[in-house]
Structures are given as structure tokens and as C-alpha cells.
Amino acid sequence: MKFLSKVKTFFKNLSTLARPSPELRSALGAILSKVGIHINAKNALQVTAVFACVRLISESIASLPLFLYRKTDTGKEKATDLPLYGVLHDVPNPETDSFQFWQAFVANMLVYGRGYAEIVRNNAGQVVQLWNITTPFVRVQRNSETQELEYVVTPSGAEQFTLRKDQIFRVDWFSMDALNAFHPLELAQNAIGLGEAAEEFAADYFKNGTNAGGFITYPEGMTDEQVESFQKQFRGKYEGLSNSARLIFLEQGSQFQKASNTPEESQMLETRKFQVEESARFYNVPLHMIGDLDHATFSNIEQMSLNFVIYTLRPYLVRIERAIVAQLLTPLDQQALYTKFSVDALLRGSYLTRMQGYAQARQNGWMNANEIRDLEDMDSIPDELGGNAYLANSSLRSIAALAAAPAESTKSGGDKNGS
């Protein structure tokens, strides 16, 4: 009996591709959702709402200029003389431009929960190249001797190699302990699985469903041969999209009863639409930015776009900026250098609103003409023509100027004539 029990246990626990164990699912990078669909990066991105969110966020961040600044006594200046400036802003490596690099890096964060890049330094320890590493190729472990983190990389079709902590640029997604990032596909497995199931149902419905959608009854019984012949003829004439809405002719007193299984009645369309909202909610993306305009109006669409920059993109931008300072700069450089994404173009309002804001800034003396022209991507005005001059309304005076003015002058607000 013990032997038979062991055999039953063996077959009960047997892991196959059709019914994988948790360990096998983990090895294959697949996650089983409650609807019974194994979720991985490929089929998750086949859900159009998920793909739209990942594409929108990753491409939006990749399109933003990333600058390396040097702190100065009066503010800041671009550190264009350092190799890292060109790596971050222009060309991370000989085979990838900055847009391609950051789009792939952020996409890995959004799908796998973490982005990786290999760091290449020159003899002076300066970063001269960054190379993307697809997240599933990397396994994190601690060195048995030093207890330092190290990264075992197993590229597809290439030899395995190990990188030290200082050779890896890493940015994590949402985390609870600052060391282990949540896996987005695990958190959203049921929402993504339901979206995948709804798409499969819709595809099967229109592929295999007869558009007549009903039942045929006969007053008298039919033989098996008659049933088979009738089914063959009926399917040939009335099944499939090409035969949609055709008239059905019945004989021998048969009757047709329509079945209530239309997409609307089965709530298929509502389910698919709700899954779009679920994906947008998970990635904190406004619906109108992934093609759902039901809740967008001309009065609120601009504000929702600004909210996207502030509440969706900004946390990712800060993560990357902080990681660059912590991992790519030496402790000495961290005191003098910092990085910043420029989001000015995304935060701009309408043309009229911008011009009104510039006019107030110019008249109140806290922006000059060249600062405004720089924001509008226009050439500077020479200094001798007043491009860098700060102006202010004649009626506005500083507290220091008022304090230094004669007493009889200050009584009238600074006007000696009292007018």
C-alpha cells in the first residue's frame, strides 16, 4: 500500500507544461492567474491596455532630455565636459541612442519590476558606457566571501558571467524594503488574466459562433443521419462572419428560437472595457492617454495630462535621478553633481496661457527675455540688446529702496511729487 501511495503521490505532483508546478512556472517566468491563464511578459503585453500603458510611460520618459548639472555659486551649469553627460543625454553605448536605452530600461521596470544596465568605466573610474540587460537574464545573490551583492547574468545564447555591485546600474519599481521590488505581473496577474480571457473569449466568439445564435426544433424526431446532414448544410449556409444576418429557411414545421447570448447580453464588451480601466488604474495612467476618451472633455483633458506628468512620470524620474547619483557618481562627485530630467515641454499649457505667464514673469522681473526664449526653443538675444536684462514695472520698488528714500517721499509711496 505504501508503494501505491507513493506512485499516486508521484503522478499527482508531476509537473508538466500543461500543468506546471509553482517551481516550474517560476523557471518559465509564468504566473498562473485565478482565471487559469499563465501570465508572462509576452502575453501580458498582448493585452492592448497593458501594452499601451507600458509603451506610453517608457516612451514618455525616454523622450525627456536628461542633463548632468554641476552646482555653482549662483545656481547650476551643465557638466558637458564630463563623459557621463554624453552617456546620459546622447549615446549610452556605440549601439544604442539615449531614447532606445531609456525606453528599454523603463519597459523592463514596468514589466519585470526592475531595470538593469552594465556599467563600463575608464581607467579614471568615470562612466563611459551603459548597456541594457534584460531583467530575466539576471539573478541577484550575495558573494560567499564578501557578502556583497553580485549579479549573475545569463544572456540568451551566451556564456554566463558575474558582475560586481559597482558594475551594475539598477533601478527598482515599487518596493516594501528598498531591496526587493514587487513583480508587476504578479500584482496584476488576475486583472491581466481576466483581460486576456476576455480577448480570447471575444476571438473565439466571432471565430466559431454562428451569428444566428439560436435553437431549431422539429415537431417530429429526426434520425441521426438526418441530424448530421442538417447540421452540415446549416453550418455551410449560415455560420461565420461572411454569412452574418442571412435569412434562415426552415422546412417540415421546424421552429427557430433565438438564444440570448449576444456580446452585449453576456457583458463581454463591458468586461473588456473595465479591464482597460483596470490596467490604466494599475499603472496610474489617465484613460484618455491610452485611447479611452469616454471620460475626457476639452475642459479637463489638459489638467489630466499635467497630472500624468506630476503623479505618474515624476516618481519614475526621481527614482532614476537618485539611482544615477548613488550608483554612477563617486562620493566626491555626489557633492558637486546631480542629474535632472527636463519636463518643461510636458508641463506647458496652451500657447495663450504660456504667453500670459511669460508676460507676468517678464514684467515682474524674475525672468529675462533669453530665459523665456530658451523655454520656447528660440535663439538668444545678444546681451548688448538687453537679452539678459531683468525688468520690472516702474511702480514696484524694493523694501530697501523705500527705506533709503527721504521721509517726505515715502509718505506718497516713493513719488517725490506726491502724485
UniProtKB/TrEMBL annotation:
Taxonomic lineage from the root: Bacteria, Bacillati, Bacillota, Clostridia, Eubacteriales
Name by which UniProt lists this protein: Phage portal protein
Top-rank taxon: Bacteria
Organism of derivation: Caproicibacter fermentans
